[in-house]
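Thread: quick sanity check before group meeting

JM: Hey all, I'm pulling together slides for Thursday and realized we never actually wrote out the predicted structure for the chain we discussed last week. Dropping the sequence here so it's in one place. If anyone has concerns about the input, flag it before I start.
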Amino acid sequence: MNDLRLAVLIDADNVPYASIREMLEEVSKNGTPTIKRIYADWTKPTLTGWKSVLLEHAITPIQQYSYTVGKNSSDSALIIDAMDILYSERVDGFCIVSSDSDFTRLATRLREAGMKVIGIGEKKTPKPFITACDKFLYIEILKANTKPNKEYTKKSPAKPESSPLNKVDNELIELLSESVNDLADESGWAFLGELGNFILRKKPDFDARNYGFQKLLPLIKSTNKFIIDEREAANKNIKHIYVKLK
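JM (edit): ok, ran it. Output follows.
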């Protein structure tokens, strides 16, 4: 999956510049950012904070003048560039960084063309744009989860490791339960390695970090609704984890 060539297109009007390092680190977990562009009317004094981070992260700024008051002109420039990149066949996927629903149709069109589409935006991002992506990440959790991951053991308390955006509630437990049932073999066991990707197909903004957990396993354990079975693989340093409803 990390061999994917990604075009990272950023709407500077709708995301904070302070989180750019975390955003790009997250993008790198999903593929290689081969194109990095950011769109705005750079004559606006409100965007001065971006200028230092553009050089640091080798992001190409695209100037788009605001010809109409109150209209985000960078939207159209980003969309036109995305389609040009699509037809150039230089990438395998796109990462659209914005909290604006105007990119919903673009995300849908790119997926129709067989592209992987990752969205990154703030919690306020409208639902249509989120569901139009293969995967959507909230900027708030990227900042909240920059500490080194700790190894999770059976003795570890099943409590959130950081401040959650969402609560572990009945809706989440139902989503997990249905997904485990959908993937389960005849004996009711589902492979954890497949579970996360399966849930993403149902809910593109699903991420254990939204609930305060670094990984899916501790999140599942926190619900106390599942049985966990750790099975040794051929390589004894690797364990395959299976889950089953109690």
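AS: nice. DSSP finds nine helices and nine strands in the chain. The longest strand covers residues 32-40.
JM: adding both to the slides.
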